[in-house]
Amino acid sequence: MPIYEFRCQACGYRFERLCPMGETGENLTCPACGAKAPLRVMSAFTTKGVESGSGSSCSSCTSTSCSTCSLK
């Protein structure tokens, strides 16, 4: 099951919930104020990894050590 992020229309509280695929929020309540039907919102995320074979953390990096990366 995916984790979706919701925002309460009444109080603005944002929270995450483990829900079945496609959950719209119409059957949920806000954990802060109890209002019904919070809105599902887009969640921002980021990834970081090492490219295989290059030893660098990104294509523009010339370092072979993440400890010296300027993108931290």
Automatic annotation (TrEMBL):
Residues 1-43 form the Putative regulatory protein FmdB zinc ribbon domain. SMART domains: CxxC_CXXC_SSSS. It holds the Pfam family Zn_ribbon_8. Residues 53-72 have a biased composition (Low complexity). InterPro entries: Regulatory_FmdB_Zinc_ribbon (IPR013429). Residues 49-72 are annotated as: Disordered. NCBIfam families: CxxC_CxxC_SSSS. This is Zinc ribbon domain-containing protein. It comes from Ammonifex thiophilus.
